[in-house]
Design goal:
The structure is a single chain. The protein has a domain at about 1-110: HAD superfamily/HAD-like (Rossmann fold). The chain contains eight helices and four strands. It has helices at about 5-15, 85-95, 100-105, 115-140, 145-150, 165-185, 190-205, 210-224; strands at about 30-35, 35-40, 55, 70. The strands form two sheets. It has a two-stranded antiparallel ribbon. A two-stranded parallel ribbon has the order 3-4. About 5% of the residues are buried.
């Protein structure tokens, strides 16, 4: 909802090399409905079953409330983790390749998503542990185990509980992010040079008339 001049410097600070924030839309891309700003997702021209919109004002998402999550407005309070708390929920929709986010969002409507999702993930983890214990206990009683073949032990093995699918994929994503950040730091000078080159090209495109005048002036000076 901020104009480009206000929001762009913040985005450039968060993602200076345009690696993560692919498309940028500002207040200029919103509609005005009854004098209020509305983010019309139809303008994205993409599959809305894959779109989640986070906003602090319900009226901003009035055209597509089924795709929206209303989060508390940041007031500048130190230690505010509102957006960070949303990460596990948003991660899960990608990791599980959710075919349509709308029914998921509707199920969480009116609830504190970070808290409710944390409870749900904890329940799934507990179920995973119980199933693993049950399976391990069954093997120790009559099933074949390598330990049993050599030692004849009847007690279940004390191997660590395996990670859930979600935990495995989350760790993989975190590792990939760390590797990406390390690569960016290592090639910072190179990326900076490419970024500056790209910015100059953009300036030339946006100010074609100015550059044309300067080129023409330079040409006249050369002829004189």
């Amino acid at each position: 909802t901020q104009i480009q001049q206000t929001a762009m410097p913040i985005i450039e600070k968060l993602d200076p090399y345009n690696f993560f924030i692919t498309y940028k839309l500002f207040r200029e891309a919103t509609r005005s409905v009854n004098g209020k700003i509305v983010k019309d997702l139809l303008y994205l021209n993409c599959d809305l079953s894959k779109v989640i919109l986070l906003d602090t004002h319900p009226e901003h998402v009035s055209s597509h409330p089924d795709n929206a999550i209303i989060v508390p407005k940041w007031t500048g309070t130190p230690g505010d983790k509102g957006l960070i708390a949303m990460i596990p929920f948003l991660e899960s929709t990608t990791i599980y390749k959710t075919p349509d986010v709308q029914p998921i969002l509707q199920a969480y409507a009116g609830k504190d998503i970070p808290i409710k999702y944390t409870e749900k993930e904890a329940e799934a983890k507990q179920k995973h542990i119980e199933e693993w214990k049950s399976k391990a206990h069954g093997l120790s009683k009559g099933g074949f185990t390598p330990n049993g073949m050599f030692s004849g032990a009847s007690e279940p093995s004390h191997s660590p509980i395996p990670l859930t699918y979600l935990e495995q994929k989350r760790l993989e994503a975190q590792q990939q992010y760390k590797e990406e950040q390390a690569y960016i730091v290592t090639h910072k000078d190179e990326f900076g040079w490419l970024l500056e080159k790209d910015r100059w090209a953009m300036v030339r495109e946006m100010s074609g008339s100015l550059w044309g005048v300067l080129d023409a002036m330079a040409g006249k000076k050369a002829e004189a």
